[in-house]
Amino acid sequence: MTDTAFLTLAGLAAVTLLVSAVALWFSISAMRRGPASKHVPPPEQPANAQLLPEFEQNSRPSETPHITWSPQMMRQVIARDLPEAEIILVSNREPYIHDLRDGEVEMLVPASGLVSALEPVMRACAGTWIAHGGGSADHLVVDEHDRIDVPPGRPAYTLSRVWLSEEEQNGYYLGFANDGLWPLCHIAFTRPVFRASDWEAYKAVNQKFADRVVKEARTSDPVVLVQDYHFALLPRMVREKLPDATIITFWHIPWPNSEVFSICPWREQILDGLLGSSVVGFHIQFHCNNFTESVDRFLESRIEREHSSISYGAQTTLVHPYPISIEWPPTVLENQPSVQDCRDRLTDRFNLPAGTRLLVGVERLDYTKGIIDRFLALEQLFLRHPEWLGKLVFVQIAAPSRGTLPAYKHLHDECRAFVEAFNERFGHQQYQPILLLDQHHNQGDIYSAYRAADACVVSSLHDGMNLVAKEFVASRDDEQGVLILSTFAGASRELLDALIVNPFDPTAMGDAMLRAITMSADEQRDRMIRLRDVVRTNNVYRWAGTMLQDAARLRLRQRAMDADGGSMTATPSNKLTPALLQRLFRKPKSLRQTLERRNYPRASAARRGASKPSAGPQGSTPRPR
User: Fold this and answer.
1) First to last CA, the chain
2) Average pLDDT, stretch 512-541?
């Protein structure tokens, strides 16, 4: 044997011994740790997969998943936690509209997600709803104080109507609110328009509504629920007249990042107005974070991120997420025919062949809803899978909205032209792949369309929540149907068993449509059961109930400080502070028991007159920069 061969064999033997030693070491280590268990790797998930709905991740300690929120539970919460509280709700949209038709007064329920969410809450609360009276016969049915008890036949609360001139409506609503704030808050690439005249109208109308709140208030400390971007200035205006009021403002649309918000010429005034609230609520935590960043950038304030609070002008405001929802079960389902009957009626109405697959979309005609984007996705589906031509129809219900604004009129014309060209390209005389129903529909017809569909498409480019997604889920008591949901809708944080899509990617959204219409009945059922459990658990009564519970805790805390301070003038030192708020929200039950045991008195009139908060940053502690 040559020297070279010997060295080669020796080297191989050394490597073999080394490998054996390493293997023996691993074996002994495993034996010391105990027997190895069989491991089944989890299925692959995208890097950003969400495991829990956001409302479960952010639940407060006092909440419990075993509570079933219902109208009865709402009444119990109010009777227990707010027994003497007066509840006043403020919104632009009224829950009932009275119009003149052929000389007769006709009552209508507007197609509005806000109304759908709040009307059942007010029926449970028995409070006062202040809204703009826009119906042609609204003034004919109110009393001398501009009030009417509603709902008709079974009055449960009072509707107080505020009258606006055409000039006020154009400047405040169509101008500043919807030509300015709406595009500012939605990433839909529509330029916001800000005019000084619109801003003046917006201020004047906010003051008019604030004056009505003060007029309607029978106590000095009502609970005021301010709704949406139409009333950013109202909380501060009410605070100046009713310093002891508990004001909860809920912003129903997204809040942009601070860089985008800086576009608004009156950004500081809007933030100051909102910080007149006791609580500012948004649908999701991301929008809370954006709001807090805006305040931090433009106002001298103290931000307590750990406690989700902002101290500004000798007052502390909580900033919390409250994901809005719908009533469960929906009242409209009581009179709905079976799913098969709904499907038969729709196919008969449009003369569709048996077995046609149906996609449905239900939206206002708004550029934030991604209506044309879903049609582009359908185009991709047909181009890549032409075998579905003649077998698939998209039914799009699109109620006209804000048609006097150029952006909305252009969108309506664009949708009509697109659908006409699409149907000429992919359809024929007996087959129209897109049915555009661009007129108003009542809730019964909309739920029938939900129940008839194989899938519902929600392709919002940017949305605070989007209740269409939850309505579709609630309508499917047959546990069938598929929800296709934009990742840019707040509902995607909760409805994790939907097919989540990027509406800016038509190819991927087309693939989701194909998956939806070919999904097995078993998979549909598994997904829908989980979706329905989320909507049932996180219904509108939970949304309102958690806000009212927070209001109750704030009132209890304030009364405790009133009692400790006696009749002393209120100062920042005995106002709500982040530390007190933290203790308050950790132990609401023990605090309530303590208050009941000590029988704390209500705030004195002397204190109410002396505790008016400042409208600016005076008295606040500037945040170090």
Assistant:
1) 81
2) 97
| pTM for the structure as a whole | 0.81
The DSSP call for residue 181 is: I
Peptide bond into 386 cis (omega under 30): no
Least confident span in 58-62, 101-105, 236-240, 372-376:
58-62
Q: Is 178 helix (H, G, I), strand (E, B) or coil?
A: helix
Element (H, E) at 62: none
State how far the Cα of 309 lies from the Cα of 375, in Å rounded to an integer. 43
Residue with tokens 């007996």: 430
Q: In the prediction, which pLDDT does 606 show? A: 37
Residue 73 confidence (pLDDT): 87
> Count of residues for the chain?
625
Average pLDDT over all residues of the chain: 85
| 306, containing H or E segment | none
Are the C-beta atoms of 282 and 321 separated by less than 8 Å?
A: yes
The contacts of residue 320 (CB under 8 Å, 6+ apart) are 279, 280, 281, 282, 288, 308, 550
CB 67 within 8 A of CB 91: no
Q: What residues pair up with 437 in beta bridges, in sequence order?
A: 397
Q: Where are the beta strands (DSSP E) in 371-461?
A: 392-399, 434-437, 455-458
Instruction: Report helix, strand or coil for 144.
Output: coil
* pLDDT tens sequence across 480-499: 999 999 999 999 999 999 99
